Amino acid sequence: MFASSNPVARSEYMQKHQIRRMRLETRRRSLTVACIEHITSRMVRVTFTSNELVDFSSPAHDDHIKVFFPAQGEQQNLRDFTPRAFDVDAGTLVVDFALHEDGPSMQWVSSVQVGETIEIGGPRGSTVVPDDFDWYLLVGDETALPAIGRRVEELRIGVPVTTVITIADAAEKQVWQTPASWNPIWILRNETTADDVSVLRTSLADCSMPPGDGMVWIAAETSVARAVYEHMLNDRHHPRAWIKAAGYWTRDHSNSHERIGD
């Protein structure tokens, strides 16, 4: 509870940590593949170019765009992906694709060539978390790596940020350049038979955060993200307003984006 007789100080405190939801203009854009890079054995980075990116906007690190993959028969294949990086002046957009079970996105990324075109839509909206917290905790699996990497890179100088991420093996670790004080915790599935919920809860139970106000962000398979959200809320008693969680995929292999706890 904030206690002060100074109205200016009280006003400044109440303005802190204001998470804003923004609506963005939704439009389809046609992009051309400019570069394809395997940043790990299970992560492919594709750089797109287009003069239609001149007004592209993605204010939040966990925004998602719709990628329109080639239709199979009469079925339109849409999947959600994070804008990993973009430069409107250069007309470029970077998207990282986590390789997993076969599907429209995997079929496309495994055979795509420089010069091919594809369409995207959005982002339709953003939930912007201000960089005014005392510390950050980012939790996820491979599908969350693009959003986590972008957030770590964008945080301010010196702010503590801990990332707790489950990956297939050590070769999937990524290194990000950041001015923040970054503490990476990688959980390797090839070292344990436990599921993601168990290993994440165990790791988080052993993880002590700095004093002050902290923002917790979670993204993984939907049931995993929900379990971690409930752990932070009910077991760790973290303020509900300062936890943001989403299911990035489900065990039926769908790629739908589901907000949790809103």
Mean pLDDT: 89
Spatial strand order of the main sheet: 5-4-8-2-3-7-6
- Any idea what the CATH architecture of the largest domain is? 3-Layer(aba) Sandwich
Count of DSSP helices?
5
Total beta strand runs: 15
Plain-language structure description:
The chain has 262 residues and is an alpha/beta fold. It has two domains: 22-125, Translation factors (Elongation Factor Tu (Ef-tu), domain 3), CATH 2.40.30.10; 129-260, Nucleotide-binding domain of ferredoxin-NADP reductase (FNR) module (Rossmann fold). 19% of the residues lie in helices and 38% in strands. Helix 4 (196-205) packs parallel to helix 5. The chain is globular. Residues 1-5 and 7-11 have low confidence and may be disordered.
Write the layout of secondary structure elements.
Blueprint: H1 7-14, E1 20-23, E2 28-40, E3 43-49, E4 65-72, E5 75-81, E6 83-87, E7 92-98, H2 104-111, E8 117-121, E9 125-128, E10 135-140, H3 145-154, E11 160-167, E12 181-188, H4 196-205, E13 214-221, H5 222-235, E14 243-249, E15 258-260
Helix pairs in contact: 4-5
